[in-house]
């Protein structure tokens, strides 16, 4: 009888141990999958912001060079902005981290602000000094917001 009881307890103990190990492994896989999803979402948003910012600066350069805005250039700018929206939505579906989402929105808003600067008249390939300063300031702020998002995102991914 004792032999049977020990055998039953050993079998139950083995089953519980196996179940626990599988449960822990599943949790670990889910955490790793979530970490990868977050990393991909952050990277996608950062890349989209860079492309959008690039399109904004290409518009500034074209204006400085007195080149007219073409329908193709506008389409590229709109597509870049739409990609930012898609990437932001993906990040929002991946995390509810309010601080990370706020940093993402700040990076987006500072890039969009480049398009809010009224460029005015070009003289010798330059805008008025206050416009040139506003462009430099907007560039610096957008880069800082981008860096803040990248650093916060990396901290969350590697936590």
TrEMBL record:
Q: Which domain of life is it from?
A: Bacteria
What is this protein's record name? Protein kilB
Name the species this protein comes from.
Answer: Streptomyces litchfieldiae
Kindly list the organism's lineage: Bacteria, Bacillati, Actinomycetota, Actinomycetes, Kitasatosporales
């Amino acid at each position: 009888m004792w032999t049977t009881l020990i055998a039953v307890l050993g079998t139950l103990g083995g089953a519980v141990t196996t179940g626990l190990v599988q449960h822990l492994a599943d949790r670990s896989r889910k955490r790793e999958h979530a970490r990868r999803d977050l990393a991909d979402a952050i990277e996608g948003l950062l890349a989209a912001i860079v492309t959008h910012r690039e399109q904004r600066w290409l518009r500034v350069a074209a204006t400085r060079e007195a080149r007219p805005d073409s329908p193709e250039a506008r389409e590229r700018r709109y597509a870049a902005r739409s990609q930012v929206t898609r990437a932001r939505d993906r990040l929002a579906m991946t995390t509810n981290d309010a601080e990370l989402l706020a940093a993402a929105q700040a990076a987006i808003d500072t890039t969009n602000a480049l398009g809010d600067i009224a460029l005015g008249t070009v003289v010798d390939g330059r805008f008025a000094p206050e416009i040139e300063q506003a462009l430099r300031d907007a560039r610096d702020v957008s880069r800082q917001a981008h860096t803040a998002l990248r650093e916060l995102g990396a901290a969350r991914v590697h936590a």
